[in-house]
Amino acid sequence: MAAIWKKEFTLEELNLFSRECIVGHLDIEFIEKGNNFLSATMPVDKRTTQPLGILHGGASVVLAETLGSAASYMTLDETHQSVGLEIKANHLKSISKGWVTGIGKPVHLGKTTQVWDISIENEKNELICVSRLTMAVLKISTE
């Protein structure tokens, strides 16, 4: 399969770019970029759990939107950008410690919208969360 990327960023560049925002605060780290996917890890610890000690659903959504947004941006030429339009998540299994890994893959790469599926698994490769992210593709204003 041919690569879907129009903007080339290394994993190191993606991680440096994301350090001073929620991505860095939750210690999300991009770990792999294939021809048609992007993956990242996130710890399950005091930063990402809810009061009952299990992974907060919102933290899973942050990981999913981070993957889909970064991947979407890299599929666009220099005259376009993308922003999240809608995200849905199904939380399938709880986890209270360790790491989760998310992988984002495109479902639809259109001119005005993109749809991304993101799967989040624990260290035993058990599915924790599935998410679908719709991105709006916008032309960058030159004015």
What does this structure look like?
Helices cover 20% and strands 41% of the residues. The chain is an alpha+beta fold. It has one domain: Roll (Thiol Ester Dehydrase, Chain A), CATH 3.10.129. It has a 6-stranded antiparallel sheet. The longest helix has 18 residues, at 57-74. The protein is globular, with a radius of gyration of 15 Å. The mean pLDDT is 96.
CATH fold node name: Thiol Ester Dehydrase, Chain A
Radius of gyration of CA atoms, rounded to a whole number? 15 Å
CATH architecture: Roll
Task: Tell me the total number of β-strands.
Answer: 6
Name the CATH class: Alpha Beta
CATH superfamily: Hotdog Thioesterase
Number of helical runs?
A: 3
Shape type: globular
Structural class from helices and strands? alpha+beta
What is the string of helix and strand elements? HHEEHEEEE
Provide the domain count: 1
Main sheet specs: 6 strands, antiparallel
Distance between the termini: 37 Å
Approximate helicity band: 10-25%
Strand content: 35-45%
